[in-house]
Amino acid sequence: xxxxxCLIVGSGPAGYTAAIYASRAGxxxxxxxxxxxxxxxxxxxxxxxxxxxxxxxxxxALVENMKAQAERLGAQIRMGVVTKTDLSSRPFKIEIxxxxxxxxxxxxxATGASAKYLQIPGVEEFxxxxxxxxxxxxxxxYRGKDVAVIGGGDTACEEALYLSTLCNKVxxxxxxxxxxxxxxxxxxxxxxxNIEVLWKSSPVEILGDMSGVTGMKxxxxxxxxxxxxxxxxxxxxxxxxxxxxxxxxxFTPWINTTEExxxxxxxxxxxxxxxxxxxxxxxxxxKYKQAITAAAAxxxxxxxxxxxLQSL
Length: 312
Ligand code: NAP
Description:
The chain contains seven helices and 19 strands. The protein is an alpha/beta fold. The protein folds into two domains: 182 residues, FAD/NAD(P)-binding domain (3-Layer(bba) Sandwich); 118 residues, FAD/NAD(P)-binding domain (3-Layer(bba) Sandwich), CATH 3.50.50.60. Strands 1, 2, 5, 6, 7, 8 and 19 form a seven-stranded mixed beta sheet that branches.
C-alpha cells in the first residue's frame, strides 16, 4: 500500500498553503482535492482583503496560483474524495473514492465548509433549475431576469452585487432588520439601484413548474406591529447564502467536533485530539472563516506535521 508522509485533504487556501509548506519541509505532500476543487474561493468574485494584491484578485485566480505554487514546489495534487478513514493507529488508513487505500503518517484536514440550503418547500425540487448557492457559477442563466438572494452576510452581499450586474432585479431576503455583513459590503449593496432589500423577511416556499423556478412566497414582519404577511414575488432564480456547514463527517468517528461539526483543536490551534492529525481552515474555524486565516492555519498545520514527524 502506498505510504504518504503528509496527506492533505482539501484544496482551498488551507490545503494548498499546507502543501506549500510541507513541500518545502521535504514531506512530499499529497493533496486529495475533494469534490469542490479549489474550495469556496472558486465561487467568489474579486477578493479585496487578501494581502499582496493592490487591486484585489479574483478568487479562482488566487486559488489557482496557490495550486500552481504548491505543484512547483513538489506537492502532488490528486482528484478524489476521501470516503472512509481509520485513524485508530498510525499510519492512518485513508480510503479514496470508495476504492483505493493509502497510508498516511500525518494527516491535515482542510476540507472546508459547504453552503447550507434552507429546508423549505421547493428547495430540493428546484436545486439546479433555479435554486443555487453560487452566483458566479449559475448567475449567467438569469441574465435580464429577476432573482433573490437569501441571507444578509458577506456572501449574500457578494452574490447580490455580482447578480445585480447581470440580472434585471435582485431581491435580498434578510430575516432581521440588520445585516451581518461588513460595513463596506452593506454600503455597496444599499447603493446599488437594482437591489431591493426585504428586511425582516423569510422565504416560505419556492414556486415553480416544469420550466424551473417562477416565484417565491415570502413572509415579512411589519416594522410597526410585527404582524406577518405573506406575498408572492415573481422571479426565476433563488441563491442561498445562509452560511456553511463544515465538511468533517468522514473524520468524526475519530476526531472531536462541536455539535455543528467544526473540528475542535487544542487551544484553538491546529492539533486535533488524535496525534499526527491536524485541522486547518473553515472545517475548524467557527469564528473568522477568511481566506487569509485559512491559509495561515494551513501553514501552521504543515509546520506542526513536520515537528511531529521529527519528534518520533
Ligand atoms: P454568515 O456570516 O454566517 O451569514 C449568514 C447569513 O444568513 C446571515 O445573514 C444569517 O442571518 C442568514 N441566515 C442564517 N440562517 C438563516 C435562516 N435559517 N433563514 C434566513 N437567514 C438565515 O455567512 P457568510 O455570509 O457565508 O460568511 C461566512 C464568513 O465568510 C464570514 O466570516 C464572512 O465575513 C466571510 N466572508 C468574507 C468575505 C470577504 O471578506 N470578501 C466574503 C464572503 C464571506 P442572521 O444574521 O440573522 O444570523
